Amino acid sequence: PSIRPRCMGTAASGPAYTVSYRAVDRRRKVGGGAADFIDDVPAGAVVVTVNPTSRACTTWGDLLTLTAVNRGIAGTVVSGFARDLRTIREQKYPLFSTGIGMVSAKSRLELEFVQEPVYIDGVRIAPGDLVTADENGVYVVPASRSEVVQARARSIDSVEADIAVAVKAGKDLCWAREKYGYAVPWKRSSL
Questions:
Q1: Per-residue pLDDT reduced to its tens digit, 88-129
Q2: At what angle do helices 146-168 and 173-180 cross, to 10 degrees?
Q3: Which of 130, 106, 156, 104 is nearest to 48 (CA)?
Q4: Which residue, 4, 10, 22, 131, shows the most beta carbons closer than 10 Å to its own?
Q5: Cβ contact 4:98 at 8 Å
Q6: pTM (2 decimals)?
């Protein structure tokens, strides 16, 4: 519930590519820059980043967006802060985040890991899980259930499309719902 759309009218769906940050510790010689993962994200993926620290700094901005657009990345979900919204909106890039701000992660955050499970609002997101996001919110389907859930979603869309056609043709909504199986739309699914 904490994630909000930042570019209205956009949507993203694809396998999760997970990223987690930690606070920079100058005594530690390991860890990567906050953006060091982006060139490894495959086309079609949805980047899911988590800043579990209490530092209110941004982990997504215009340069990451430009790279993501050029690489064919489907969208980004940020549990944390993003910036450069005007540029991101001009690109019509699907970005969803907890907050917006101006302070960069440079010298404040570093990569802790990529492609390991992360948690947002108590929801576990593992690499490869199906992430779908639009103006209504973000949901995650475990990779092991993705095929079944997608088939059921297509069935629901089909039932609702039939109901809409019937209502536009003058039929009563109650009649159309009963006729097309609104109460159990997943029954049209072959899975």
A1: 999 999 999 999 999 988 888 989 999 999 999 999 999 999
A2: 140
A3: 130
A4: 131
A5: yes
A6: 0.88
